[in-house]
């Protein structure tokens, strides 16, 4: 006899679509006398259905799967759930892409501003330990030395310290206002003037801070420099600039109008110079659209020389700028230059020098003796000015690694071209009309005098301004015999010792090859 258990309600997927029968083997007993062997069917109670060949599982009758939930209509405009999920995902993706584009645009803008400020490999030169010389250990020692030179500067030091300690008080504003160093502004006034330091008002940016265009309540347009407080750097630069040019007034120096010091904030307020800087006109798009003429370039060169002459010879103690470069020469609409950025300036007493344990400046402009020994003197500024003058004449950057190996360094290239008597080759091809031969020669002579390897042979800035401005620079007459005992102009010949340049204004005694350079 056989028994079969038939389950007509349970479905086990595609491999069990027919009735499932469990067969038991026949029992080894004698057959019964019944005419037929009965079949027993056992029917189970109907359980919740399970379908293994799909992705749906249900624990009760009439349950819905994930697909059913996604297709249900929602209360949002009657849209189905999967439609809303798709819309949300698309919105998130679009927002992410937009944020990325804004970030890239902002980064690109900041990079451009940084390039405008320091386009020619501008960088802070690393620290150099001066051999055999003990320099000051800190910034405070530098300024203390300067303060001892002049009692008035010492008073300024004490007044500044008092103001820094009580920067939030009205007493500090009264003290600094009394000594004639401009106005003390509150942080709220600075935020209002710059639109909350809005990025659209940024006009310059560098390693020491960000410069904003601001408008004061009386509608005066100013430049607001928000110093970056990196390891106390803002405090140092704030102090140096206030002491260096706080009381200085000269048409070729940017004027410091006021300042703000609240909490960690250190802000300087300058007169606004609205015609860009010299670097932009020499190497940027401004110069390509409207190149500077020779007369304008000479006006800028002479004005810069006068500004430096005032810092070196018209003040006591004298001020050594330490960072003369094209991006620090601001220009107004009449092409008057104004020297800016006194954050690295040093105050030196009469006949004194300063030995720095860390050389600061911009690569390509720094005097060789200062870079190698840390010895700082006003002649260091003279060298930097000479490089700047070469830049004005040639339109080339002080260091340009895109050029051939012999033309990377502007000073070396300039010397070689002048030494080979191809003086016209140093002129910027954008200069139209070309200057007279006499004017060009006079300017080239000044350039080479300024970058003389012997710092003691470099002229003073007052002499440089006089040589550029007047026509009294001594030249040999075209018709005067070379052997005549008179003042003549000499340039180094090709056989001159490398790295050395004789004085360019000498008495008779130059080699014959040198005498014929300007014929």
What does the model show?
The chain has 519 residues and is α+β, with helices and mostly antiparallel strands. Among the domains are: 139-271, Phosphorylase Kinase, domain 1 (2-Layer Sandwich); 276-473, Transferase(Phosphotransferase), domain 1 (Orthogonal Bundle). 36% of the residues lie in helices and 12% in strands. It has helices at residues 66-70, 81-117, 139-149, 151-165, 170-178, 187-193, 233-245, 278-283, 285-289, 294-313, 368-373, 378-394, 410-419, 437-450, 461-469, 512-515; strands at residues 4-7, 20-23, 183-184, 202-205, 209-215, 221-227, 256-262, 265-271, 318-320, 329-331, 337-339, 346-348, 354-355, 375-376, 488-489, 505-506. The strands form 6 sheets. Strands 3-7-8-6-5-4 form a 6-stranded mixed sheet, sandwiched between helices. α3 packs across α4 and α10 (294-313) packs antiparallel against α15 (461-469). The chain starts with a strand and ends with a helix. 33% of the residues are buried.
| Number of β-strand runs | 16
Question: Which bin fits the share of residues in helices?
Answer: 25-40%
Oligomer: single chain
- Structural class by secondary-structure content: alpha+beta
- Strand content is 5-15%
**Total DSSP helices:** 16
Give the biggest beta sheet. 6 strands, mixed
CATH architecture of the domain at 276-473: Orthogonal Bundle
Task: Please identify the top-level CATH class of the domain at 276-473.
Answer: Mainly Alpha
From the spread of the alpha carbons, the general shape counts as globular
GO molecular function, one term: protein serine kinase activity
Catalytic activity: L-threonyl-[protein] + ATP = O-phospho-L-threonyl-[protein] + ADP + H(+); L-seryl-[protein] + ATP = O-phospho-L-seryl-[protein] + ADP + H(+)
Binding site for ATP: 225
Organism: Apostasia shenzhenica
